[in-house]
């Protein structure tokens, strides 16, 4: 996805185990590896062995954070794990899981709180300092406060904390004898439960279950808390739920082999491509995806249109974040570290280029120029989602609204900026229909500016696109 190269990332992934045996930390390691796409800047695991908590976290990808000796010291069959993409505070700070040894609590969070007023007021009243805390750390402090000051069990403390949690959250937490997993009342971020041997596993996405050999049971419902202990699994509907899953999970964030709310993500993306073929009839020679995220939609478009599918762009999958900046003369070649045309495939061709979204537009502009330079006669860009016109406040580091190209340019203006022959976006209706879910069960806030969970004072900064200056 071109926007992935423009710093559009999911913030976090969570994983948890209970009662699966002494290899729980290694299982969590592989689960986090499967969820690497949801956070690439730090990773951590907490375990409990019946006597002591053990914890390890560090900056970097899962493969580099854990050495064999790190996993060996993470003994016990209760674990939680977390991958993080930091958007504030830097890579070294705010790593998760959060471990509070006094409360005998470890906690991990996927999501974001646009409003923390109630949480701050509660912590202030309980004399709990939080000046340097982010939203996840304040959540952990609230749960720990109910456990230490009020003597509540972990699940009681989570339920007591719910009224102060104003935002999107899919969380796992553990204490000495239980694991809990819970979601916000809209279920903005996915969270699922599976069986593994004699125990259970919880993960942000079902692809992690496949990796560790667990058997999917069900999605955890919006507003629900699942409690797992020696007596098995029980559920508590803490608050009434109204599903509003972020549709961006289907558009881009979830791994293609995951299943969300009963829908295979890869199949949804193929249907988005098929829907684009119905909405945009283009006379062209080949359909080319921007790898990897554009591939399913390009396959769907090719299938319906009959236009040949070609993998004409090669992606370097070994490129990750680097702190080494290219020299001035090499900066314009930076994209070729990630994508490179296959020689001869594009020459004299009318090309339909397919990707899942455009955020700032700078990378897509470079890709289009790259394809022209490779000899293409025409370049037609199709995007398998509507224009991204509004910022996210629920756990994606989507840029400020002013940085979104579709906020201040119409599609026709964007076409001119990209320098291509045509540009088309999948309609909102076509995208929703492709998910197989009703519109009432989806959050489409990045496309329509309707936020199902209150965003507080940030609502004042949200403006509607204005194309009055467009020709």
Keyphrases for this structure?
single chain, 471 residues, alpha+beta, Glutamine Phosphoribosylpyrophosphate, subunit 1, domain 1, Rossmann fold, 2 domains, seven-stranded antiparallel beta sheet, 16 helices, 24% strand, globular, disordered N terminus
Q: What's the CATH first level of the largest domain?
A: Alpha Beta
Alpha-carbon distance between the two ends:
29 Å
* Portion in helices: 25-40%
According to CATH, the fold-level topology of the largest domain is Glutamine Phosphoribosylpyrophosphate, subunit 1, domain 1
Shape: globular
Low-confidence stretches: 1-10, 87-91, 321-325
So, CATH architecture of the largest domain?
4-Layer Sandwich
The major beta sheet can be summarized as:
7 strands, antiparallel
Give me the CATH superfamily of the largest domain.
Aminohydrolase, N-terminal nucleophile (Ntn) domain
Radius of gyration from the alpha-carbon trace, in angstroms:
23 Å
Please report the number of helical segments: 16
Total discrete domains: 2
């Amino acid at each position: 996805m071109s926007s992935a190269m423009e710093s559009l990332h999911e913030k976090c992934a969570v994983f948890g185990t209970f009662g699966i045996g002494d290899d729980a930390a290694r299982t969590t390691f592989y689960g986090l590896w499967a969820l690497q796409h949801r956070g690439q800047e730090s990773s951590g695991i907490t375990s409990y062995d019946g006597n002591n908590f053990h914890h390890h976290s560090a900056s970097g990808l899962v493969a580099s954070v854990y050495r064999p000796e790190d996993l060996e010291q993470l003994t016990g069959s209760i674990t939680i794990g977390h991958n993080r993409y930091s958007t504030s505070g830097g890579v070294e700070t705010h790593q998760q899981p959060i471990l509070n040894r006094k409360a005998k609590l470890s906690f991990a969070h996927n999501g974001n709180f646009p409003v923390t007023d109630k949480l701050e007021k509660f912590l202030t009243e309980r004399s709990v300092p939080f000046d340097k805390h982010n939203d996840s750390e304040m959540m952990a402090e609230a749960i720990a406060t109910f456990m230490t000051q009020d003597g509540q069990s972990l699940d009681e403390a989570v339920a007591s904390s719910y009224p102060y949690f104003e935002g999107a959250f899919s969380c796992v937490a553990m204490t000495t004898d239980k694991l809990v997993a819970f979601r916000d009342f809209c279920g903005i971020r996915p969270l699922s439960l599976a069986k593994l041997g004699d125990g259970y596993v919880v993960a942000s996405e079902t692809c992690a279950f496949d990796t560790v050999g667990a058997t999917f049971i069900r999605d955890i419902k919006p507003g629900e808390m699942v409690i797992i202990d020696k007596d098995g699994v029980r559920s508590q509907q803490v608050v009434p739920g109204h599903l509003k899953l972020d549709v961006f999970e289907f558009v881009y964030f979830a791994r293609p082999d995951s299943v969300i709310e009963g829908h295979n993500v890869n199949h949804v993306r193929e249907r988005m491509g098929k829907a684009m073929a119905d909405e945009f009839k283009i006379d062209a020679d080949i359909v080319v995806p921007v790898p990897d995220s554009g591939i399913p939609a390009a396959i769907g478009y090719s299938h319906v249109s009959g236009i040949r599918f070609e993998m004409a762009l090669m992606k370097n999958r070994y490129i990750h974040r680097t702190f080494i900046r290219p020299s001035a003369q090499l900066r314009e070649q930076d994209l070729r570290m990630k994508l490179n045309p296959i020689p001869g495939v594009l020459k004299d061709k009318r090309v339909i280029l397919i990707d899942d979204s455009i955020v700032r537009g700078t990378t897509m502009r470079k890709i289009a120029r790259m394809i022209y330079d490779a000899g293409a006669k025409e370049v037609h860009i199709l995007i398998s989602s509507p224009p991204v016109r509004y910022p996210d406040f629920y756990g994606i580091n989507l840029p400020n609204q002013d940085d979104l190209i579709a906020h201040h340019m119409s599609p026709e203006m964007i076409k001119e900026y990209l320098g291509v022959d045509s540009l088309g976006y999948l309609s909102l209706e076509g995208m929703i229909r492709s998910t197989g879910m009703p519109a009432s069960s989806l959050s489409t806030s990045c496309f329509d500016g309707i936020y199902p969970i209150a965003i507080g004072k940030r609502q004042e900064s949200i403006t509607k696109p204005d194309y009055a200056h467009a020709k």
